Amino acid sequence: MLIGIDASRATAARRTGTETYSLHLIRELLDLGQDHHVRLYFSRPPSPGLFPDKAEQRVIPFPRLWTHLRLSWEMLTRPPDLLFVPAHVLPLIHPRRSVVTVHDLGYHYYPETHTLSQNLYLRWSTRYNAQAAARVLADSEATRRDLIHYYGTPPDRIAVVYPGRDEALAPVTDPTLLAAVRARYGIPGPYLLYVGTLHPRKNLGVLLHAFAANLFSPSAGLRSLFSPLSLVLAGQKGWRSAEIFDQVRRLGLEDRVLLPGYVPDADLPALLSGALAFVFPSLYEGFGFPVLEAMACGTPVICSDASSLPEVAGDAALRVNPRQVAEVAGALARLVADEGLRRELVERGFRQVQRFSWRRCAEQVLTILEEVGREQG
Fold first, then answer.
1. Residue 92's Cα: distance from chain center in Å?
2. pLDDT tens-digit profile of 157-185?
3. How far apart are CA 31 and CA 68, in angstroms?
4. What are the phi and psi torsion angles at 121 (to 5°)?
5. Which residues make beta-bridge pairs with 56?
6. CA 288 to CA 296: how far, in whole Å?
7. pTM given for the model
8. How many distinct helices (H) and strands (E) make up the chain?
């Protein structure tokens, strides 16, 4: 079978969750799918060595509307037997045998965290994916439920396939490396860490209020615990990120909250490993990659008890109601104060991450692609 894969999102220089998914899954599919011919479609040339030489690579640049015009034309003139779109939307012209991954429907829950144009496009593209694909892959049971609820997608057309994790991530214990990363990002001492886009859906306002509540607490004991700590919010600026900077100023946290921007992959293991705790208060996630990354680096985790995060974190994190400042503040205080709890969560985290691998993900996806090829043949 000739399997075509839209690999356009995998070439991003700064990858977020969906681009990471696309890159790692495609690499594993190429390794597994030797019984099939695979053709990758790119809107721009991939960097050398991004993918092994196990697939045909089609670079088909186009200035605008690449998916719906240029990739559609490719599907019309040189169609594969089956098309898989792991991180975007199906082109308007596509084979009947098409499979697409839908990562999340958070815009339905929090439309205010997107612009009007983004909301309109997300609603149209996700509905289109859900209706046009022969099979829809969902990153989590939470996303599967949302597809059924919002778009009436038949349950038997949805398959939940959990993404994998970066299995190269491991705790960094070399004090020289840990100190070098702290120096690079201007972190003066022990710190709590968030990694992700600075975006309203990530709920960083509640985290800032919770951190301030402990730092300026009437309790001398809490103030003493938090007095040496910094809060590091690492990630590229997203829509309305200026509100986060304003809130830092309003709360008087300019000297305690560090915003270093995007952290390259090379620095992430040491940054995670050196944190006292990783805090991820997001209101909605299709799948929480940062939670697994922190666990893999031996960092105890606090995360939201919302959307897919309970599936990802299991019992290996302190889970909180992300809308309750007092609950987030209490979890922070509990974890900072209790070294034994931190050790317990680290051990649980190491066990939890074993549930997720890109090889297992790719095996499940390849089985589904082959099933669709037979069903629609």
1. 27
2. 999 999 999 888 999 999 999 999 999 99
3. 29
4. -65, -45
5. 39
6. 13
7. 0.89
8. 15, 13
